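Hi F.,

I've been meaning to write this up properly since the lab meeting, where we talked about keeping a consistent format for the predictions we share between groups. The idea is simple: the sequence comes first, exactly as it goes in, then the structure tokens exactly as they come out, then a line or two of notes. No screenshots and no reformatting. I'm using this chain as the first example so we have something concrete to point to.
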Amino acid sequence: MAHAYEAKTAVGRIVNEIEETAIAVLLGLMTIITFINVVLRYGFNTGLIWGLEAVTFLFAWLVLFGVSYTVKVTAQLGVDALINLFSPATRRILALVAGAVCIAYAALVLKGAWDYWAPFAGLDATSGRWFPTGFENSRDQAWYEVIDIPFPEWLRWIEPIMNEGESYEKLPRFIPYAMLPFGVALLLFRFVQAFVRVWIGEANSLIVSHEAEDDVKDVAHMNAGN
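Output, unedited:
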């Protein structure tokens, strides 16, 4: 069953607070923007032109944060009916194999995420078909903008750096897209952590198991107490 994460170091506690706060803020912003848009549209026949696009980006950020967070707290759902037929030692080996596969998968996705985002940030994509073997020149797309979200005035300082001094009218794409490689890198880090937990014996699985069964037992226990 999913467990409450307990950081062992001060840095771990800080990172955990940042993650949980970010998830809560993203969800809150999505709710506020959507609520305001509904009120404006049905009450005043207007709306936030950039609202839908902003909520779309916030939702994508929430998903990327949430994926790594579920790995950290062992909240991924899985079917362990077949795995439970084996001995504890075999189950541990299978969990390690699964962890290695997850790490390899996250590494592949991280390469793709970087290669997709890098041109929007004026950076070079990686070479190599599966895993990065270096960097190669890629088309500079730092001038690409989103469709509706206006460019904040307090970010004008990035124009000489990213857009050769040209003014942005809308938010440059590399800003909201930056969450893609960051989120996947965080996912890779969490998979490595989960693999290490199984390796040293702190956990015996990468997934949550018997969650429904445990919930039923908790309800039955509460009813018995009443």
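Notes:
Helices lie at 10-44, 51-72, 88-117, 159-162, 174-177, 179-199, 211-225.
The first helix runs from residue 10 to 44.

If this format works for you, I'll send the rest the same way.

G.
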